[in-house]
Amino acid sequence: MSEELVFHFDVDGEDFTSAGQASVQIKKILRRLGLSPEIIRRVSIAMYEGEINMVIHAGGGVADVRVFEDYIELVLKDKGPGISDINKAMQEGYSTATDTIRSLGFGAGMGLPNMKRYSDTMEINSVVGEGTEIKMRVNIR
Amino acid sequence: MTVKELCKTCDFEVCCMPFPEREVKGAYIGDLLSWVMGRANEDNAWITIMSNVNVVAVATLVDTACVILAEGVKLEQDIIDVAKEKGVNILYSILPSFETAVKISGKVL
Ligand SMILES: Nc1ncnc2c1ncn2[C@@H]1O[C@H](COP(=O)(O)OP(=O)(O)OP(=O)(O)O)[C@@H](O)[C@H]1O
Ligand SMILES: [Mg+2]
Question: If pLDDT is split at 50, 70 and 90, which confidence band does A2 have?
């Protein structure tokens, strides 16, 4: 437990044209740690979708990545509007993204389903008006 | 086939090619970034008409061999600079996405 590596990122909510920096950063770190391409891919995709969601739906937030011996844990926290119907939000194709955001290529409603698909466990805690916390785990072995 | 060879045989234009010798395997066409994130594979050529900087982030994370911007779409210089810095190969095609795909078909699989 004491051996885990911890990485913290502040995800800026202002600039959604250059979002994704934390994910790119994490990808580099995991590569340096020598993890398999498959694990790196899964973690960075899950992280990217979570990061982008915080930027476009919640005005930014924080991301913490912990690398344990057996798994990688991603925790994304924001103080945005929260998600009122999580089951609906999890459906492929469901999106509340605005036209401006859609014109940038987001808003397919595939982000949360991707996060679910690429992580081994995923937990969403969201309170409307307070914010959202998403915890994901990707098993290394 | 490498990105450089693909560019040459298909008459694409180089936007930036920091890794010309990278091998291209398969392709994915899409403009909705979450679809590309979820479905495109490593070493693919990614054909898109999206031209904002998020394309560079997605290409980096998916680890595509190259991005091919179809329909004559061009990138702003500041985005090209980011792509170079991140080591993302980007080619320009004047053809629409389908014709671009037809052109590379048989060469990247
Ligand atoms: N952190 C968040 N805070 C508030 N609402 C969120 C958050 N993340 C997701 N949502 C809500 O859940 C919906 C579905 O999210 P999802 O990531 O699947 O799709 P999207 O972000 O709209 O589009 P895509 O991810 O395909 O670009 C969003 O449209 C939004 O309404
Ligand atoms: Mg999303």
Answer: low
- Residue B46, CB-side half-sphere exposure with 13 Å CA sphere: 33
Nearest CA residue ID for atom 17, ligand 1: A111
CB pair distance less than 8 Å for A105 and B37:
no
Q: What is the ipTM of this complex?
A: 0.83
Q: Where are the beta strands (DSSP E) in B17-104?
A: 27-29, 45-48, 66-69, 90-92
Q: Do B53 and A18 touch (CB under 8 A)?
A: yes
Q: Which ligand is nearest to the CA of A81?
A: 1
pTM for this model (two decimals): 0.91
Q: Is residue A50 part of a domain?
A: yes
Measured between CA atoms, the residue of chain A closest to residue B48 is A105
Closest CA to B67 of B29, B21, B32: B29
CATH node for B3-104 = 3.40.1390.20
